[in-house]
Write a structure and sequence with these properties.
12 helices, elongated, 3-stranded antiparallel β-sheet, ThiF/MoeB/HesA, Outer Surface Protein A, domain 3, HesA/MoeB/ThiF family protein, single chain, 2 domains, ThiF_NAD_FAD-bd, Rossmann fold, 19% strand, alpha/beta
């Protein structure tokens, strides 16, 4: 294995070496004998094996045995400063150009046993079922395509209408009257022909309508409207299939999204069991009784629709690659439009007798 120093700036300062990877954070390494600076200088010459690195250090008067050099590399790896040279790219110039920014992003999370190319390869092997290609869903599709997710199944039943153009950028005026999901699939194919995409023009009226769509799927993402229990149907179908779920949407004054990690987190049905009874003589009961009756104009505008899509896509990225743990598993993340888009995390109620997840 040839070890490579990741993108960083470093310089000696007194008896320390300062290392800059992110402008928000300076790593300070003690270096009374100058060996750390010698190590960085040796790695700056280019990727090398342990034996080659030991030789470079010896040239500068730093004589370490192989075990000490390995220990030094492991220390740098624990700080996220080195990676394996051969795993920095996908090995194909065209793919490396296509995924230039994705590879650079994952460089921040890579290490000797977590290659940046592996993260991108996982995305290219992933299959995401997208429910709804309207407001937030259309932006979600664009984000997933940009990440290079290898296979998308898109589900929707609406047609393109003039009112969609305030927030849905997959569509053009020439598409008015056409199936949204067919237009969305065409957009993906034109954007990146290597992405396999399937369009499913279908109403979802219960968990059974999703069963045949979940085979081989790594993640379900999006948002369904039209019925107050649609999110419960999706939750049930996904949890029973053991497929992670990332969903979100908007009320008049809040963006909210959540995820469910089957077998690890509480599910939506758990939280639903804690809702106030419809006949409860309280303000909460009043809200529940009238939630379904409340007909609002769709206030979702372009910047908020794009934020929903990007938040869902970023949580999906956590599940699909494992670069970090999911942040919304078993919780609502609510972004308050009345308070400067301030986010708040509200964990689901855990129901030990949940009929769906069996907790």
């Amino acid at each position: 294995m040839r070890v490579a120093l990741k993108e960083c700036a470093w310089e000696p300062l007194g008896e320390d070496v300062l290392v800059l990877v992110d402008p928000r954070e300076v790593i300070t390494l003690g270096d009374e004998e100058g060996q750390v600076a010698a190590l960085f200088a040796a790695l700056d010459r280019g990727p090398c094996t342990v034996a080659e690195l030991r030789g470079r250090l010896a040239e500068t008067g730093v004589d370490l045995d192989e075990a000490d050099v390995r220990a030094a590399i492991e220390a740098l790896d624990s700080l996220g400063l080195v990676e394996c040279e051969s795993d920095r790219t996908l090995g194909d110039p065209d793919l490396d150009a296509r995924h230039f920014s994705n590879l650079a992003f994952f460089g921040g999370f890579a290490g000797l046993d977590k290659p940046r190319a592996d993260f991108v390869s996982k995305l290219r092997r992933s299959h995401v079922l997208v429910l709804g290609v309207g407001g937030g869903g259309s932006s979600l599709v664009q984000c997933l395509a940009g990440l290079g997710v290898g296979k998308l199944t898109l589900v929707d039943r609406d047609d393109v209408e003039p009112r969609n153009f305030a927030r849905q950028f997959l569509y053009h005026h020439a598409d008015i009257g056409r199936s949204k999901v067919e237009c969305a699939a065409e957009w993906v194919r034109a954007y990146d022909p290597t992405i396999e995409v399937r369009a499913v023009d279908r109403w979802i009226s219960g968990p059974e309508d999703l069963k045949d769509l979940l085979d081989g799927v790594d993640l379900v993402a999006g948002g369904l409207d039209g019925h107050p229990e649609a999110h419960l149907w999706v939750n049930e179908a996904a949890v029973r299939a053991g497929v992670p779920l990332v969903m979100g949407g908007m009320t008049r004054s809040q963006v909210n999204y959540y995820s469910v990690d089957p077998g690890r987190s509480a599910c939506v049905q758990c939280d639903w069991s804690d809702r106030p009874a419809l006949d409860e003589p309280t303000a909460a009961g009043f809200v529940e009784r009238n939630r379904a009756k409340l007909v609002l104009q769709n206030t979702l505008i372009a910047p908020i629709a794009m934020q929903i899509g990007s938040l869902l896509a970023y949580e999906a990225l956590r599940y699909l690659t494992g670069f970090e743990p999911p942040q919304a598993a078993g919780a609502f993340i609510k972004v308050d439009l009345r308070n400067g888009l301030t986010p708040e995390r509200q964990p689901f109620t855990v129901d030990p007798h949940c009929r769906v997840c069996g907790r």
